[in-house]
Amino acid sequence: MEFRVLRYFLTVAREGSITGAANFLHVTQPTLSRQLKDLEQELGKKLFIRSSHSIILTDEGMLLRKRAEEIVGMVDKLEAEFSSMGETIGGDVYIGGGETDAMRQIARVVKDLHLSYPNIRYHLYSGNEDDVTDRLDKGLLDFGILIQPADLSKYNCINISAKDIWGVIMRKDSPLASKDTIQAVDLLNVPLICSRQAMKQTFSKNEFADWFGEDFDKINIVTTYNLAYNAAIMVDEGIGYAVVLDKIVNTSSDSSLCFRPLEPRLESGLNIVWKKHQVFSAAADMFLKEIQMKFSNSLSDV
Fold it and tell me: How far apart are CA 267 and CA 273, in angstroms?
């Protein structure tokens, strides 16, 4: 399987037609069609359903698209790392993480590093723990920022000196908005929108489940989310109350939403992680040295 053909395939999948992809790639339509047919024969699977004006990916085509994007992303990352080698440190650093105000601390590291190494570029990927660790394990990210609880057993990690505070966002006209804090009993009879990571029962210790105690199995979860922006829209439309981290959702005076912290107070720590025995590019290695220096008092290997 040729790497060039994978790029062709991704272009066709993106453009939705052979004609559009051929024009974008500056190749003839018959040439592109032949390459795709050869790819289908090589894999022994039909990748497209063709019509007169468009193409639709089959299930096998959808799988190949996902894998091809990962392969192309890794090759592009490798080429960028080699092209950046030289006397001047530059290149790309790939960082994934959940939505957290602690990203400000990472931003400050980036800002300080930029003064000395302006040729380093940073690429951010947002997702929950599963999203981030999947890309980290595949080599598509250099670093991941994980909100606890999280499985750190496969990684080296640095504890970030920040805590995220859990609470509930709700409409300002909702009954619970009159409370200063939210207790577990307040959430037993209302529809909840919860983070999928917080709901996971695979961790040896789940602080969120511990906070609810024996009532955890009684809560009414109507929606789960991995990024809080969409959860906030669901709350605004009256779907329910969302359990989220503070400072992620807009709850300013011009917003229809408000935030109330949990009582007893529930906080989550954060870790920046990377694969054990990872070989970094010069840019990623410089970033690692900077965060080790900034958070040196909390460095740990797991």
Answer: 19
pLDDT at 204 > cutoff 60? no
What pLDDT, in 10s, does the model give residues 261-284? 999 999 888 899 999 888 888 899
Whole-number Å distance between alpha carbons of 236 and 213: 28
- 274, two tokens: 């990377």
The residue among 171, 188, 168 whose CA lies nearest residue 256 is 171
Tokens of 277: 């025995």
Q: CA geometry: angle at 190 spanning 224 and 209, to 5°?
A: 55
Report the C-alpha gap between 181 and 203 in whole angstroms. 27
15: tokens are 């453009």
Cβ 272 vs Cβ 291: under 8 Å = yes
Q: CA-to-CA distance for 48 and 54, rounded, in angstroms?
A: 10
Contacts of 246 (CB under 8 A, 6+ apart): 101, 164, 165, 166, 167, 259, 261
The alpha helices in 147-216, defined as continuous H runs, are 196-199, 207-212
- Residue 247's identity, in one-letter code, is K
DSSP 92-104: EEEEEE-S-TTHH
Query: Can you give the pTM of this predicted structure?
Result: 0.67
Q: Residue 249 has what DSSP assignment?
A: S
Find the angle CA(234)-CA(235)-CA(240) to the nearest 5 degrees.
100
pLDDT in tens, 66-84: 888 888 888 877 777 676 5
